[in-house]
Specification:
Radius of gyration: 29 Å
Distance between the termini: 13 Å
Structural class: mainly alpha
Largest sheet: 2 strands, antiparallel
Length: 620
């Protein structure tokens, strides 16, 4: 899931003025006419490609069952003899071992047949020549007493040794980056590190590409991001080593922000105000569709390099949009490119069979121009009166605004960390990895559908709180699941994923309405950055499952439950007036009033800040 701040919604006065004028044009064209629907659909398809890159790690970093390669497995004759494999079917990398040989060679905690889990990072330091001589040719005649005697003589007094080489079970996973670079045992942190670097790229890309799209235009930044994504997506498939692959993956992470951010902005700028909530949810459903389609690639392609290249190639099709996707009219208006804006509006009008003459368009744009001039004059006057721009520190200066901001930051942190933690942890749920992955994407569709029908009826706070509590309870309950009831573990995890997806979709809208206009962009930008920190930490939390299987789910669930409870401390924003000034933000939801001189000074400062200009170029 992507979350960004957009200058066209919460940006500078110049951008907001363009929004006001163009909204009138959209009404004339139709809130969601044929032209807008076509462009919207084409842009939604690019969300599928971004989902491929964000969710592909479940297959690229798939970890099969594995065990140490035992010393005698370097001797083909002895290995074939001990495990009774005929020369015709001999395979020195065969994962299977007879039960007696597994018990003799590996500690008992390395195997969990009920969960289908076999992971051995150590083997007993035994004399395999002695083992060979003791067993002779009668391995089938071993009874329990002789096995106990053999185990006592060979293992209990000899300790263990770490693995020097590994043998992987390739019955389900033919090849992955994990098996190629042996990212297991004491090297398993490399997987989490690569995921964290990818999310760092998402953060950097959301800031960088967001600012570029405001300065250089939506369209050129969209295609540069798309071309970069395709190029480096293919390069990742031929990366010779882990370091190169991780660096390339950082760039891919940045481009997912560039492609999705700009596509989202262009799409939303073409939709009427009454349809934006629904359009945004439908666009996110396309991302969820891409999530599920990634599983189709995983089903047919079992080699990770081929898989990586395959998910990158669809981006080539989207490069053909160069001759279809127009520049954002809002951006053209805000940058005084009047003729280009009129040309795009006329093109849309012709496609929609709407009679919108030049005189009408001119009148709308002239009204808008007057607004921009007045806004600029106001900015010029304000810039003299105000010595410093707004920043995230202004959110911390005032007690009520600070309290609400910290609660919002925590909600973003928890939602992002839990969403990506669950999305990227489907392999650890056991049994059918592919089924778990597809279901994890599928549950997002009903989550967004739920929001479409309830967000403007039940209230933002109720939905955010309720969904986070449901997610928290479902994930915490995994601690009670018996070892032989893995289906119940999967069910609870998917309930948690559905609920956290719904809360993640809610927190963006809820936060935008909590921050006053003069500092909204800064507030949402800071929130999104905190969310990325949650995404960066999520893979390291998932690593804790190596020590106790349900621990990551319990941690995510506890954080979600706590976030749901704390969300009750935020005021409801549904059908409330838009907060404009910092004073509005401080007073909104304020429960305790005081007449102290200190507070009076603070409120006087707040009113002096009412004319602070909007900070419109911070995008995350």
């Amino acid at each position: 899931m992507h979350t960004y701040t957009h200058s066209y919604l919460y940006g500078s006065k110049h951008i907001l003025a363009a929004k006001m004028g163009y909204d009138d044009v959209i009404i004339q064209l139709g809130d969601f006419g044929k032209y807008q629907r076509l462009i919207f659909f084409l842009l939604c398809l690019t969300a599928i490609s971004c989902a491929f890159h964000k969710m592909s790690r479940a297959f690229i970093f798939a970890k099969p069952n594995f065990r140490c390669q035992l010393p005698f497995e370097n001797v083909i004759t002895n290995y074939r003899y001990l495990v009774n494999i005929s020369a015709k079917h001999q395979n020195i990398d065969n994962f299977e071992l007879p039960a007696y040989l597994w018990r003799i060679s590996y500690p008992s905690n390395t195997t969990d047949p009920k969960a289908g889990r076999y992971e051995s990072c150590k083997h007993f330091n035994i004399n395999y020549t002695l083992l060979y001589n003791l067993l002779g040719k009668n391995t089938d005649s071993l009874n329990k007493s002789s096995l106990f005697l053999l185990t006592t003589n060979l293992t209990f007094s000899n300790g263990t040794l770490p693995c020097t080489n590994y043998i992987y079970d390739n019955s389900k996973i033919k090849n992955s980056a994990v098996t190629e670079w042996n990212m297991v045992c004491d090297r398993s942190f490399l997987v989490a590190t690569s995921d964290a670097v990818f999310m760092l790229g998402v953060l950097v890309g959301s800031i960088g590409f967001g600012q570029l799209s405001d300065k250089c235009g939506r369209r050129p930044v969209f295609f540069i991001s798309l071309l970069t994504q395709v190029t480096f997506g293919i390069l990742a498939g031929i990366a010779p080593d882990y370091l190169t692959y991780t660096i390339v993956r950082f760039i891919i992470g940045a481009t997912t922000s560039g492609v999705f951010l700009v596509a989202y902005v262009i799409a939303m700028e073409m939709v009427g105000p009454k349809k934006r909530l629904y359009a945004g949810m439908f666009l996110m459903m396309f991302f969820s569709t891409g999530f599920m389609l990634t599983g189709a690639f995983g089903y047919f392609i079992h080699e990770w390099r081929t898989f990586q290249i395959a998910i990158s190639l669809p981006g080539l099709v989207f490069l053909g949009y160069y001759w279809i996707i127009p520049e954002s009219v809002r951006w053209l208006i805000s940058n005084n490119r009047r003729e280009d804006a009129i040309a795009n509006i006329k093109k849309a009008a012709r496609f929609n069979n709407v009679d919108l003459d030049t005189e009408t368009i001119d009148q709308l744009l002239n009204d808008n121009k007057d607004i921009i001039i007045k806004a600029k004059e106001t900015d010029d006057v304000t810039s003299i009166a105000v010595t410093k721009p707004v920043s995230v520190f202004d959110l911390m200066r005032y007690p009520n605004l600070r309290r609400k901001s910290l609660l919002i930051f925590f909600d973003w942190f928890v939602n992002s960390g839990t969403y990506y933690g669950l999305s990227w942890n489907t392999n650890a749920l056991g049994e059918n990895m592919l089924f778990n992955f597809v279901i994890s994407g599928a549950v997002e569709i009903p989550a967004f559908t739920f929001l479409i029908f309830t967000l403007n009826r039940w209230g933002r706070r109720n939905i955010l709180c309720g969904c986070m509590l449901v997610a928290g309870c479902a994930l915490i309950l995994t601690i009670t699941v018996p070892q032989n009831a893995n289906w119940l573990m999967v069910l609870l995890a998917m309930v948690g994923k559905l609920a956290i997806t719904a809360s993640y979709g809610t927190v963006y809208i809820f936060s935008a309405e909590q921050f006053p206009t003069v500092i909204r962009n800064v507030g949402l930008g800071a929130s999104s950055m905190v969310a990325r920190i949650g995404g960066i930490l999520a893979p390291f939390i998932n690593m804790l499952g190596n020590y106790w299987h349900p621990l990551p789910l319990i941690m995510f669930g506890s954080a979600a439950f706590m976030g749901g409870i704390l969300s009750l401390l935020l005021p409801e924003t549904l059908n409330k007036p838009t907060l404009e000034t910092i004073a509005d933000g401080e007073n909104f939801g304020r429960r305790v009033t005081t007449t102290s001189s200190e507070t009076n000074k603070e409120m006087s400062a707040l009113h002096r800040d009412d004319s602070i200009p909007l900070n419109g170029n911070f995008n995350t």
